[in-house]
Amino acid sequence: MQNVLERMEAIGAERKMADFNVKMKMDYEFKKNYAYIRAWEFYNECCARGLNCHVSVGGLDSITLFLFLRSIGIYVPGTSVSHLEDRSIQEVHKQLGIERVQPLKRADGAVWNKAKIIQEFGFPVLSKEIASKIELLQNPSEKNKTVRHAIITGETGAYGGYQKNSRMKLSRKWLEKFGGYENETEGVNYGVPDFKVSAKCCYYLKEKPCDDWAKQHNSVPYLGLMASEGGRRAKSLKINGCNYFGKSTIRSAPFAIFNRQDILQLALELDVPVPAIYGTIERKEDGTLYTTKAQRTGCSMCGFGIHMEKRPHRFDLLRERNEKEWKFWMYDIGWGHVLDYIGVEWETPVAEQMKIGEIKELLNDFYVIPKEAEAERRRCKADGN
Q1: Are 54 and 77 in contact (CB under 8 A)?
Q2: SS3 state of residue 132
Q3: Which of 87, 66, 193 lies closest to 134 in space, CA to CA?
Q4: Alpha carbons 13 and 290: distance in angstroms, whole number
Q5: Per-block mean pLDDT, blocks of 10 residues, the chain (385 long)
Q6: How far apart are CA 35 and CA 55, in angstroms?
Q7: In angstroms, how far is the first alpha carbon of the chain from the final one?
Q8: pTM for the model
């Protein structure tokens, strides 16, 4: 069996990614025309295979995709697990006639919801990839022993090509916080949190319900994914391209080579209804487009990427929109404790935090000036002045 490195070489992964990166640097008109070609190519191939198509709709990117496809003559249904989205997004879904996918049921017949997912499996924090690694560390078995070793040391086994410093290794920062499950095995001294971490929320809340709907309707999805967003999907998009027909997965991502500016420009051209959570699409003096409120959206309890956001971050904005829900997640479910552990401020209101920062700056100025004056006084004394 080929290892990962041999398999990547066999499929020409490096060349494919280089070609894809060139397309990502092309201008907006090229990308829009490229999306048109890839979208129709996927539709026609699916028709030839006897497959139906649909658009998996969530936030602004996929809403724009849904309307883009209609603008070029591809009329396929849109589906969404809408109850997970912000109310303003749900309103736009209703306006566009997006079909609501029913949530997944547990073995006991109850419906899975956000709180139950966290309580049973753990918190979705940092990133999907990092959370998956931490979840493995928290659930050791003989089967995942080699992978756990790679997460701590970067050293892979035969399947990983016997690499010594692979990307499987957690960064030092997160090893210090979450790597302690292997202290005895690896002879290290890392920390262990008092809460569980998991990436399973997306599977139970979105992926499985949508996959079930697709199977029932013999349908395959158009997705609003972009490689520019990074994460674990970026490499897959670059290697497999916009349209992918695999053994178990068939999907189209016409916007794969787009960036944020391209999406916002297309949204303006198509007069896409922008959900209130994003505010409005505006243009800076240098021409850069942006949304005046949220830049990205997702489940209100999702913590993927939270450590990279400046305040006001997503939980601050949730507090402004719905303080009752914010208190539920922060205190009742325990998100506040998790954010404390990873070093993300959340409890002090943003306005108050800014005032504290201003006071600190004033104090710094107050103390710096006398020090400079004292240094000048000593210099003059030494010169005999």
Answers
A1: yes
A2: helix
A3: 193
A4: 33
A5: 75 90 97 98 98 97 98 98 90 97 89 92 95 97 94 83 83 97 96 97 92 97 94 88 96 98 98 96 96 82 91 91 94 98 95 60 48 51 50
A6: 14
A7: 83
A8: 0.83
